[in-house]
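Take a protein:
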Amino acid sequence: MKIFSVCLIFIFLFLLAAPAAVGSIRAHSDEVSTPKVTAGQVDEALLKTVPIRFLPSHPLYFLITVKESITRFFKPSAAERFEFDFILSGKRLKETHSLLNAKELDKAGDNLSRYTKRLRKMVEELEKARSQNQDIAGRLGRVSDGFKNHEILLVYFLGQDENLGQNLESAISEFKNAVSSIDKINPGLKDRYKLLDGFNVESEEKIIMPSPTISPLSSEATPSLRPRRIIY
């Protein structure tokens, strides 16, 4: 009887302690897996990014877009367009930060999509510059240094609002792709960007549709359906 009572007490204490232990493990797991940046790091990253004049929600913002397109068009080489696209991508992140502060979540998400597209163009120009043997060493150094600011702002966005959703995931994925592209030229670059190592964009599962079952045509009857020949 005493042994039975001791067992009951032990089970009772275990049930009381289990939820607290699980909560502690989850909190520790979240702390380890979720990257974080300080307000000072964010402010410094914004200061190092080129200034912005209008936000995308401003009626005159189209003038900024026109100016950027014309300026890029007259860049004489892929190497120069590569660096210019990097500068524009930084502006998109700075605009996104301001849009989030203004509670314009839809505009912020759209702007992250523009950031993703700009990074893709940047990588395309990098490949063109390499194929044409253009001198990109100095530009790669400046872009590599500036990417640290991109990483800080992307991590900041991760902790702000879940409504950014797929746009933010795509932006982070494209950022990693751009880093990998530069790392092929300057090996070891990836080691400088550790904040987003724990963030993995889940790949969509391929849905395999079952092939439709083709029923036999009336003119192609199966042996079991062929009419029997009646002999009188």
